[in-house]
Write a structure and sequence with these properties.
heterodimer; A: alpha/beta; Fumarate Reductase Iron-sulfur Protein, Chain B, domain 2; FAD/NAD(P)-binding domain; 3 domains; 5-stranded parallel β-sheet; 19 helices; about 35% helix; B: alpha/beta; Elongation Factor Tu (Ef-tu), domain 3; Rossmann fold; 2 domains; 5-stranded antiparallel β-sheet; globular; binds flavin-adenine dinucleotide; binds FE2/S2 (inorganic) cluster
Chain lengths: ~450, ~290
């Protein structure tokens, strides 16, 4: 496994990491101690039997490894690529105390890629029960719940408002981290369980609330797709994007290939990306690939960035300039953007999160010369559908309130993923969807 | 990939203006006045919003002007052809209530959005006055239909080739001076909505305009469609498209509509060149 050199990869949208060869995979798997009480499994939100699948890899039994993975996770090629393993399974690996942990994520990806090439085996599906389940949203939460419920023999329909399934996997995460065909193939496997996908259906508009609540069970997985803007002057100038818009134009609509594809996007020569999370890194690296000089503007220090370390170092290698301890205060220009006015931040006291709380330094204002600004400071729960359902309890930030099994305040309505937790991770969305699917299956059986 | 949404009827109404009926059951069955749909012609297509102008069974009507690449390409489709994606209905429905006397004003291709609103207002028990205006007689659409729905209909053309010589705003101003009007809808190009809603402001009449910023998803996920209304940023696709006209920052709307002017030109030229080489542009509609 190796990263393609930064000087090469900034010219295309091909995957950065080329993956393991079979020999490398076996050698890596052989490092596993096969602990009696595996801590790695505890670190996995979907409880993959990690020692078993790693053992199968070490034996060269890739098919067996794939079977073990698929038992708990229908999207292993995706998770192997985007999960924060360093804080989950790999973070818990005992080998990590003295040397480096087993590269479980890389092995998961290897097995899933091998299976995709060799032909996937489908898990068993129970006989039809005659019960109907509606899933709203086809991101990782919706896909996982759909698979879980379909395997129990229920008839599942997924409603997706966009013209492609996948949620953030499709419109958000760029192809150099998660190629389109990998996502498509894993979605197809979910659909192959007999799940019906209705694209271009915005629940609450194309499907009425009464129709939706008429299903025997409903799973809400509409995500946290509502972009937050900073609220600074000049924000609606031409050339200011939310990360969601910029990434959607490029990933979903292929605006980078305009005019071969019809959707346009601005090509800034000098672009400021505001934020320090994965979304900011993705936006910066996409803009870089479109030829821009990119400044990543973050109000705290580099070590405080919430993005994965590997994304930060990839961004750095690709020539993204980090402007830290800096907060934007105004976007300059008339019709178009001509600069970003910022103020330096001093980091003294630690706040409740244990991170230093940034305070503006009076008189330290300066201007970064840019012609485009991308705001990647966060997203909120999608309010559209959930605000239309009478009696659905929501939290202060607009998220749907659920218990540990994804139950909402309405008996046969469940929710999971970012709409319940706020913006989180792919695997947490899948974990919550799995628990909800189990609860729905139990409820439907009991009736 | 299978193409799902069939064009049932394609009619050329005027120079560059077309009426299409598209089969899209999930849109037709739920559409209300004031809403729109988003379509994507093919794998490489852009998502473009069009107002839902009428509904019959499982089909919806759109009326559009072929202004750029996507609308020109759409205009080459014939009955029986298919559109890859149609999503909707999108946006909030119009605020229909029993106001008393209502005026529904349409300008140019914006007239497309007026019949459903007029119809629902009528059904709610209002006295409905229609005012439709276009540059010239041949660009005036839906006159008969609006005459059938409204209690009174006024027609204007900029060049006087049909109806009164002048703008819809002139008629609206006259009516406001003569009698009490309780609520007004204005749909048309941004500049027309700006000027026409300026007429109702001194009278303090509640006035709705249907905003048309550039959109992508149409579901509130990207913020491309953001507009400033009453000093606050709103997403036209989910908070609108109809807003209180007197609160709208029209200058910003018009500025944001121009973001991609350069690229739109490239796209159109490339398409025109391709059409010439393939010799399939134009053609007759029936
Ligand atoms: C740019 C970016 C990079 C990221 N990188 C990582 C990463 O590296 N690792 C990681 O673990 N996580 C990452 N995340 C976070 C992760 O993608 C999300 O936590 C995860 O996708 C949430 O899944 P979900 O199924 O809850 O929602 P989503 O993936 O948001 O899917 C929701 C779906 O519901 C649809 N929908 C919404 N409303 C309706 C409606 N009314 N009717 C029908 N359909 C509707 C939407 O169109 C969407 O397709 C990233 C997020 C972004 C934006
Ligand atoms: C809610 C809404 C309802 C609309 N209803 C109608 C209608 O009923 N009939 C009609 O003729 N037109 C309507 N429009 C405008 C229509 O969407 C644009 O004319 C169309 O997108 C132009 O695409 P194009 O590729 O042909 O032209 P382009 O050359 O790409 O663009 C021409 C102009 O159209 C606007 N435009 C471009 N792309 C978009 C986009 N993705 N979203 C919105 N506007 C865009 C821009 O201001 C641009 O300058 C509506 C727009 C909105 C937002
Ligand atoms: S079009 Fe994307 S939020 Fe309105």
């Amino acid at each position: 496994m190796a990263d393609r050199p930064a000087s090469v990869r900034i010219n295309d949208f091909e995957e950065v990491d080329t993956g393991l060869t079979p020999d490398e995979a076996i050698a890596e798997a052989e490092r596993c101690l096969q602990c009696k009480k595996p801590l790695c499994v505890k670190g996995c939100p979907v409880c993959i039997d990690i020692p078993a699948f790693v053992h199968a890899v070490a034996e060269g039994d890739f098919r067996g490894a794939a079977r073990t993975l698929k038992e708990q996770n229908m999207l292993p090629a995706i998770c192997g690529r985007v999960c924060p393993q360093e804080t989950q399974c790999e973070g818990a690996c005992v080998l990590g105390i003295k040397e480096t942990p087993v590269r479980i994520g890389a092995l998961e990806r290897f097995v899933a890629d091998w299976e995709r090439q060799e032909g996937a085996e489908l898990p068993e599906v129970a006989r039809p029960t005659g019960k109907r389940v509606a899933v709203v949203g086809s991101g990782p939460a919706g896909l996982t719940a759909a698979a879980g419920v379909a395997r129990a023999g229920h008839a599942v329909t997924i409603f997706e408002s966009l013209h492609e399934a996948g949620g953030v996997l499709t419109y958000g995460i760029p192809s150099f981290r998660l190629p389109e065909d990998v996502v498509r193939a894993e979605i197809d496997q979910v659909l192959a369980l007999g799940v019906r996908l209705k694209k271009n259906h915005l629940a609450g508009r194309s499907v009425s609330i009464d129709e939706l609540l008429g299903y025997d069970a409903v799973f809400l997985a509409t995500g946290a797709g509502l972009p937050v803007f900073m609220g600074i002057p000049g924000e609606n100038r031409n050339g200011v994007y939310s990360a969601n818009e910029f990434l959607t134009r490029v990933n979903l609509m292929h605006a980078d290939a305009f005019p071969g594809f019809d959707t346009p996007v601005l090509h800034g020569a000098r672009v400021a990306v505001i934020g320090g999370g994965n979304v900011a890194m993705d936006s910066a690296r996409v803009a870089r690939r479109m030829g821009a000089k990119v400044f990543l503007v973050y109000r705290r220090r580099e070590e405080d960035m919430p993005a994965r370390k590997v994304e930060v170092s990839h961004a750095r290698e690709e020539g993204i300039e980090f402007v830290t301890c800096t907060n934007p205060i105004r976007i300059l220009g008339e019709e178009c953007v001509i600069g970003l006015e910022c103020v330096e931040m001093s980091l003294c006291d630690l706040d409740e999160s244990g991170r230093p709380s940034p305070e503006p330094i009076p008189g330290s204002e300066f201007i970064i010369d840019v012609d485009m600004v991308i705001q990647a400071i966060g997203t909120g729960p999608n309010p559209l559908l959930v605000s239309l359902i009478p009696g659905l309890e929501r939290g202060r930030r607009g998220n749907v309130v659920v218990d540990d099994n994804g139950r909402t305040s309405i008996p046969h309505v469940y929710a999971g993923g970012d709409i319940a937790t706020g913006a989180a991770t792919v695997i947490e969305a899948m974990g919550s969807a799995k628990r909800a699917a189990a609860a729905m299956n139990a409820m439907l059986k009991g009736e | 990939m299978k193409r799902l949404y069939r064009v049932e009827l394609a009619i050329k109404l005027a120079d560059r203006v077309y009426e299409y009926w598209i089969r899209a059951p999930q849109v037709a069955q739920h559409a209300r006045a004031g809403q729109f749909l988003i379509l994507r012609l093919h794998e490489r297509g852009e998502r473009i919003p069009l107002t839902i102008s009428a509904v019959r069974g499982d089909a919806v009507r759109v009326i559009f002007m072929a202004v750029g690449k996507t609308t020109q390409e759409l205009a080459t489709l014939r009955a029986g052809d298919s559109i890859m994606d149609v999503a909707g209905p999108l946006g909030r429905p119009s605020e229909i209530a029993r106001y008393g006397t209502c005026c529904v004003v349409g300008g140019g291709v914006g007239i497309a959005g007026t019949p459903l609103i007029a119809e629902e207002l009528k059904r709610a028990g209002n006295h409905v006055i229609g005012i439709i205006g276009a540059r010239s007689a041949d660009l005036l659409v839906l006159e008969d239909e609006m005459r059938g729905i409204c209690d009174e209909l006024y027609v204007t053309t900029d060049d006087g080739s049909r109806g009164a010589h002048g703008f819809a705003a002139d008629v609206l101003k006259r009516l406001l001076g003569e009698r009490v009007i309780d609520c007004v809808w204005i749909i048309g190009p941004a500049i027309m909505m700006k000027i026409t809603s300026g007429v109702t402001a001194p009278y303090g009449v509640k006035t709705y305009v249907s905003l048309n910023p550039i959109m992508v998803d149409g579901t509130g996920m990207c913020g491309s469609c953001r507009v400033t209304v009453g000093g606050e940023t709103k997403f036209a696709c989910v908070d609108g498209p109809e807003f209180d006209a007197h609160q709208v920052d029209f200058v910003e709307l018009m500025q944001r509509q121009r973001i991609y002017t350069g690229q739109e030109k490239i796209s159109l030229e490339r398409y025109a060149e391709h059409q010439c080489r393939c010799g399939e542009g134009g053609g007759s509609h029936g």
